[in-house]
Structures are given as structure tokens and as C-alpha cells.
Amino acid sequence: MARLRPADAEKRAQSGYGSDFLEALARGLSVLTAFDAAHKQMTLSDIARAVDLPRATVRRALYTLERLGYLDSDGKLFRLTPRVLGFAAAYLGSSGNAMALQAACDALCRDFDEPCSAAVLDRDSAVMVAHASPARQLSSAPGVGFRVPAFCSALGRVLLAGQAEEARAAFLAALQPVALTPRTVTDRAELARIVAKAAQDGFALSDQEAELGFRSLAVPVRRFDGRVVAALNVGLRIERASARQMKERFLPALLRMAADLRGQVV
Predict the structure, then answer these.
(1) Residues 6+ apart with CB under 8 A from 128
(2) CATH class of segment(s) 95-261
């Protein structure tokens, strides 16, 4: 059995993950997650740059993932295969929360005739675990697994607001905010104020900060003990409703649905 080189041992210890951390597995997962809507297919060199790993390491990961059926290639370009959906299916099938949240999104979408989503916090992003769109938007709607930055989205701010103050402070201290639109707030002090206000108000509204021409309203979903486990959101083009109209039309129903979910989520 090959021994861990001193340099590798030191690097692993500095990472804080410990000696049981499987670097090969982590590298393989980083290769899979390098693909997204903007990078649907990439060359070996593209992927090596994206994950900041040596070409030889990436080549072995690509070979393994292709043999396992998670990637397809024409000899130059690599792309994900439908088999990766098994990871999402396993999560959604084993999560009672996801099923309850999907039913809530379906009901709200029917009532509002607007897209509705539910998300959970994953590091610095809000990740959709449920989504429903009106028929007019099905072709362009984001789906389950879609990620939005937590610091500038209504979903993310509600989820951050549900954390303890120490956790919020740590999140903002580590944050390297990048403006996605001219309206994106990137000042940490102002972001702290916005998140604190979301905690006090019980909702958050993001007005063209994550995407120009789009505003969204979100509320927290709490479990039986008051802990925030998800967020419910309605989002729409700015011409469909002003910020004031969104709060008047959608906020009461979002809050009622969140209250109904309290006995269903864990």
C-alpha cells in the first residue's frame, strides 16, 4: 500500500478534513460539478482549468467517470449523461421535506399563476429543491438543482436570516461578493443590515440584484421547533408587479403556506 507523502499529509492536515478524507473522490466530484448551464461540454483542458487540478489527475477522473456512465465524450468534448440525475433522485426520494415543498410550490403556482420555488442553503448558495412554473414559462424555467447566490437572492437572505447571528457574521466575513447586476448590494455592512431586517420582518425581497428585470419575494419555512429548514419564493419579471404589489399580493399566501408546512417538515 502506498504511503501518504509528508507533503500530502501536511496539505491534508492543513485542509482541516483529516486523514480519512478521500482526495480522489473529492477530485472526481469536483470534475462532475464543473459542468453547468454555461459549460455544458468541455475539453480536458477546460475542466482542468475550472477545477484547478493537473491535467493528468483530471484525465484519470474523466476516464473513471466515463467508464461508470456519468460522462460521455466524442474523444475531445466531455458532457454529463442522464445518469447523474440519480444523485438528485436519491435525495428527492429520500427527503420528505422535498416532497412537501414541491406540493406547496405546485399549489402556490396555481394560485399565483407565477413561478414558485423552494430552496435550502448549501454553503454560499440557495439550491432549489422544488419548483413549479406556469405553462407559459415551462420552456425557460429553472429547475430543481438550480443555484442562486445566497447573499443577493431573496431565498438566500431568508435562509441566512434563519441562522444564528454568529453564523451570519462568519458567512459575511468569508464572503467575496461579486455584483451580478448594477443593483447588487456588495457592501458587507449593508448586507448584514439587510439579512437582519429579513430576520425581523419574516421575509426578504430581492429587486433585480440577482438578475436584471427580475424580482423575487421569499419567506422562511420552519419546522416544529422554529428552526428554518427551507425558504419559499415567488419570482417574476418586474413588469408583472412592483415590489409593493408583490408584498400585497403574494406575501400573505406565502406566509400561510409556510405556516401549513411547519407540521410537515423536519
Answers:
(1) 117, 118, 119, 142, 143, 144, 145, 146, 147, 155
(2) alpha beta
